[in-house]
């Protein structure tokens, strides 16, 4: 449902189309009346949560994530940020686009680089809601992560229900347990679900809410990729990659190993089959 945008916003911006909505608020495309630049504006009645998101965004300086420009508050909260033009990954998948293995690894690798930036902060930040609908392939072909409303510091417990975040099917099993402390390996689990989705075409957010049975049986998924998936999707958090950097390194090695094997098979060396 569209919200009534207050006069203080209409004085400065032309409010355009609704870009999306979620539990926190709605996002509109707006145009500044003076400089004519386009921005994305998130509107929410949950001002305390939106203000926390704005504060978090000011600390994140990575091209993978949108840049914040302003935060305004009246009856509602208004977060003004970079408007990223491009294609939403979930829309692409829903449209029937199938990604080859190299393309899938490229997308997940770019996502892991963004997560690695968060995990290297002091204290570490955890994204907590990685899923295709929060990923955009922009007009220059770069992978971008949007919606920083779920980012939390590692080491601080999710004290209340309102501070919990995550999407069923992507979130680590322990992520919804009460008073759990966000950990980088939560993001690793979600990245594994994303990789499994791209490699098999099976959406983990719909029944049976998983990809394990598909990638384990899928002969098109190389064993090196299955090894990365097995570790990133471990039900035990401590058995996963500790952070995005470690998963990224092994994912790249798995791709190299798989392509090397294909090369030897093409040359007729059957020892690598």
Descriptive account of the structure:
By secondary structure, this protein is an alpha+beta fold. Helix content is 36%, strand content 18%. The radius of gyration is 20 Å and the shape is globular. The mean pLDDT is 91.
Give short descriptive properties of this protein.
about 270 residues; alpha+beta; five-stranded antiparallel β-sheet; three-stranded antiparallel β-sheet
Summarize, please:
The protein is an alpha+beta fold and 273 residues long. The chain has helices spanning 7-10, 47-59, 89-94, 101-119, 184-200, 212-217, 223-232, 244-266, and strands at 13-21, 26-32, 38-44, 68-73, 77-82, 86-88, 125-126, 135-138, 143-145, 152-153.
Number of strands: 10
> Which structural class best describes the helix and strand composition?
alpha+beta
Strand line-up across the major sheet: 1-2-3-5-4
- Low-pLDDT stretches: none
Helix content: 25-40%
Note the beta-strand portion: 15-25%
pLDDT averaged over residues: 91
Largest β sheet strand count, sense and barrel closure: 5 strands, antiparallel
> What spatial form do the alpha-carbon principal axes imply?
globular
Rg, alpha carbons: 20 Å
Number of helices: 8
SSE sequence, one letter per element: HEEEHEEEHHEEEEHHHH
**Termini gap:** 55 Å
